[in-house]
Amino acid sequence: MSPSCVAVEQQPLCLRGPLNQQPLRPVAPGVLSDGDTFWPVVDGIPFLRTGRELLRAEVLAALKRGDRRLALAHLLRDQDDWARSPPPDLDQTLAVVDGVSAGTLGLRKAMEQLHFGPVAHYFSHRWSAPTFLSALGLLAQHWDSPPCVVEIACGIGQVLREVVQRGTAGVGVDVVFAKLWLAHHFVVPEAGLVCADATVALPMAPIAGSAVLCHDALYFLLEKRRVLSEMRRVASSSGRVLVGHAHNRLVDQRGIGGVPLTPEEYAALLPGAACYDDSDFVTAFLEGTPAPARAPMALGRAEALCFSASGGPALGSIDFGQPKPGARLKPNPLLVERNGLLQPFWPAPGLADEYACASYLGGHPSLSADLLARAASGLVDDEIALLARRRLLLDLPERW
């Protein structure tokens, strides 16, 4: 049978076995093989995570019996090594499967019932966070009009959604199947999604000219050199590797986990890359001005860092701050009124501390009923566009 090439809009994604890098071929409904190992595909998402032999066997056995619901529930209980909460039991997970399938369970409730813990708050309000704006600023400043954006550790696909909405194919890779499943059902169903461990290998052939992004995640990954090597391989010599919000080991991270490096250590892994203070890309997004490149030794006090390899100028242009035409914008649910002014109300002390720099969210007058009605109708005039750029208005998924 022919190799498994998943259509991602107009971009074929040719998958390889993560262990032997041989082409994956369909051998049964919901099953791929690389010649050595069988790998399940559930809800269109290949499960290529290594080190999960027992789980993979359980899922394959359920698929062989025709029980896709049980196979899915097994996969949704799998977590990463940094999870702070135990997974739900199998019956609870089956209830999530049924609720999402029936349309009675929304994104936030599904994350809660899957025991995402503090990560659920992060994803629920990521649309407003400085780390999200810096990702969009980094991508925009180095936009080469790629045929595809591949995001490593894509989470629930929020960055990919911005890319796909503007006509570029998106591929998301994450080690946690549940995040990809939520991305597929709630956030970016058009993207190609693959569950795999980038520290082992990216199970795909190179995509010439692609942009390969890892944002707010590289500092968590132990095999950084290997991950970056795989990102360069997939981007090919004509593409671009982008690393965003990589925490700086020289700066107190307020209890945030991971294994961060110094600016010089990151730069040594990305020779020839342009280096930036991550916070400059927040300004770049909000103000429409380019972020200045800096020498690694000048970034000792930067909380987080960004890199682009190659470091050359962008070949195209894109504005992620401009809402897509016809977007039905809603008031940011994070904002509450105090003394006639809107202020963010973060759902957890950790988020409030981490995102204290989000000054763009506070101090604005309450939005009028007329403006909200215009925004909800799909009208995007200058006033609405400015409020969307500053995240007072958001284009949230329908079942947020």
How would you summarize the topology of this molecule?
Blueprint: E1 5-8, E2 11-14, E3 25-28, E4 31-33, E5 38-42, E6 45-46, H1 53-64, H2 68-76, H3 90-102, H4 107-113, H5 118-124, H6 130-141, E7 148-152, H7 158-165, E8 169-174, H8 177-187, E9 192-195, E10 211-215, H9 224-235, E11 240-247, H10 263-269, E12 274-277, H11 278-287, E13 304-309, E14 330-331, E15 335-338, E16 341-344, H12 349-354, E17 364-365, H13 369-376, H14 382-389, E18 393-394
Parallel strand pairs: 7-8, 7-10, 8-9, 10-11
Antiparallel strand pairs: 1-2, 3-4, 4-5, 5-6, 11-13, 12-13, 14-18, 15-16, 16-17
Q: Can you give keywords for this protein?
A:
single chain, 400 residues, alpha+beta, Rossmann fold, 3 domains, seven-stranded mixed beta sheet, four-stranded antiparallel beta sheet, 14 helices, 32% helix, globular, methyltransferase, transferase, SAM-dependent_MTases_sf, Methyltransf_11, methyltransferase activity
**CATH classification class of the largest domain:** Alpha Beta
Measured on Cα atoms, how large is the radius of gyration?
21 Å
Shape descriptor reads globular
- Rounded mean pLDDT is 93
Strand proportion: 15-25%
Largest sheet: 7 strands, mixed
Q: How many extended strands? A: 18
* SS element count, helices: 14
Helix content: 25-40%
Structural class: alpha+beta
* CATH homologous superfamily classification of the largest domain: Vaccinia Virus protein VP39
What is the second-level CATH architecture of the largest domain? 3-Layer(aba) Sandwich
What is the domain total for the residues? 3
Q: Note poorly predicted spans.
A: 7-11
Task: Please give the order of strands in the largest beta sheet.
Answer: 9-8-7-10-11-13-12
Taking the alpha carbons of the first and last residues, their distance comes to 40 Å
Keywords: Methyltransferase, Transferase
Pfam families: Methyltransf_11
GO molecular function: methyltransferase activity
Organism: Stigmatella ashevillensis
